[in-house]
From TrEMBL:
The lineage of its organism: Eukaryota, Metazoa, Chordata, Craniata, Vertebrata. The keyword Ligase does not apply. This is Phosphoinositide phospholipase C. Pfam families: EF_HAND_2_PLCG, PI-PLC-X. GO terms for cellular component: ruffle membrane. InterPro entries: PI-PLC_fam, PLC-like_Pdiesterase_TIM-brl, PLCG_EF-hand_2, PLipase_C_PInositol-sp_X_dom.
Length: 244
């Protein structure tokens, strides 16, 4: 967080974020936010100050905050930076054309996530099932599970040989089950990086079958097919990607 704020402070023509050593005490005020939108993000709509107020209000966590004009604390501002409202993606391309989803799966770019479980850097940050939920709600269709032997015969997920925290494999699978098709009906691919003993591999397979049930793609869609099935054929399916 501090490194992001320091980058902003290098440009004095932008807004003042205060003391980056105390980000909780820093804030982005209305006219500063408007200048940021106009000059840095090139958002022409931000010429309308009322629209800027409306946009800011969506990211204020404390709805009871009493001020003459809205402002964003650092956490709220960072939430905006990584939100869909600040994306460069043209929303007219957001919805897939059903007529174009009948080709083999390998013909498509697939929105994918690496080290999906991490909430921060790859060395010391926290792992969380919430990270999977966030990716799936954003429409990600390929997510990664790094599986390692855990206590009591049940695997854990974390970035191996680092100080990242560890989470339960079972909790992650349940989160995927609950949110896999919230944003899209097209298949979700689970990319498994597996470092487990045979015993815990069996637990992984058991949990996949029990939690996903019929959603798990466990046999070919067409036994005699010479190419991959299409996204349309795979709607609502969970696909396991793993080395034999």
């Amino acid at each position: 967080q501090k490194s992001i704020l320091d980058e902003f402070k290098k440009d004095s023509t932008m807004f003042l974020l205060g003391n980056t050593d105390r980000p909780d005490a820093s804030a982005v005020h209305l006219h500063d936010f408007q200048r940021f939108l106009l000059h840095e993000q090139q958002e022409s709509w931000a010429q309308d100050l009322n629209k800027v107020r409306e946009r800011m209000s969506k990211f204020i966590d404390d709805t009871m905050r009493e001020t003459d004009e809205p402002f964003l604390y650092v956490d709220e501002f960072l939430t905006y930076l990584f939100s869909k409202e600040n994306t460069i993606w043209d929303e007219k391309y957001a919805l897939a054309d059903p007529q174009d989803m009948n080709n083999p799966l390998s013909h498509y770019w697939i929105s994918s996530s690496h080290n999906t479980y991490l909430t921060g850097d790859q060395l010391r940050s926290e792992s969380s099932p919430e990270a999977y939920i966030r990716c799936l709600r954003m429409g990600c269709r390929c997510i990664e599970l790094d599986c390692w032997d855990g206590p009591d015969g049940k695997p854990i997920i974390y970035h191996g040989w680092t100080r990242t925290t560890k989470i339960k494999f079972d909790d992650v699978v349940q989160a995927i089950k609950d949110y896999a098709f919230v944003a899209s009906e097209y298949p979700v691919i689970l990319s498994i990086e597996e470092h487990c003993s045979v015993e815990q591999q069996r637990h992984i397979a058991k949990v996949f079958r029990e939690v996903f049930g019929d959603q798990l793609l466990a046999k070919p869609v067409e036994a005699s097919a010479d190419q991959l099935p299409s996204p349309t054929q795979l709607k609502g399916k969970i696909i396991i990607k793993h080395k034999k």
